[in-house]
Amino acid sequence: MEKTTFNARTTLLAGAVLFSTATASLSGAQDYEFQAVNTDIKQGPGSTVSVRLVDKRTGKAVPDAVIFTTRMDMAPDGMEMMTTTVEPSAATEPGVYDFTTNLSMQGGWRFQVAAKVQGEPETVKGEVVLKAVP
Fold first, then answer.
1. Does residue 49 carry a pLDDT above 80?
2. Most buried by CB count within 10 Å: which residue of 3, 72, 112, 117?
3. Residue of higher predicted confidence among 91 and 72
4. Distance between CA atoms of 116 and 62, rounded to whole angstroms?
């Protein structure tokens, strides 16, 4: 009887290990999110937009991501074709990515960004909605 209990425990433990391994292997780009540091941004040339890349599993900022795609448009106000350039700026803190742009009009702006995170094979994509204020 004791041998059966031992085997049942071993099987249960092995199943738990396999489940946790399978769950870990399912992690991916969806485990990350871009968050706006500030959503109200001063309108005009030289506006600074800062986003934080967060690992949702740990809640910690992710430093050293390689940002390779950005797009800023006025989609929130129904003007997706109204775009502006976005240039990377010097980082203010690890896991925060700063950009300089020209928010030429007051209103809602959508900032789309794509990045590669070390050790993650998938591209991490996200967007934040901002408001250009006077």
1. yes
2. 72
3. 72
4. 11
Pairing type for strands 86-88 and 96-103 reads antiparallel
Write the DSSP symbol of residue 123.
Answer: P
Q: Which residue has the tokens 């769950």?
A: 23
Residue whose token pair is 């702006």: 109
pLDDT, position 91: 86
Q: What is the three-class DSSP state of 16?
A: helix
The span from the CA of 3 to the CA of 95, in Å, is 52
Question: What six digits make up the tokens of 71?
Answer: 């797009």
Rg (Cα) of the chain, in Å, rounded? 21
Torsion of CA 21, 23, 27, 31, to 10 degrees: -130
User: What's the pLDDT band for 23 if we cut at 50, 70, 90?
Assistant: very low
pLDDT digits (tens, 9 = 90+) for 84-112: 999 999 988 999 999 999 999 999 999 99
Query: What is the number of residues in the chain?
Result: 134
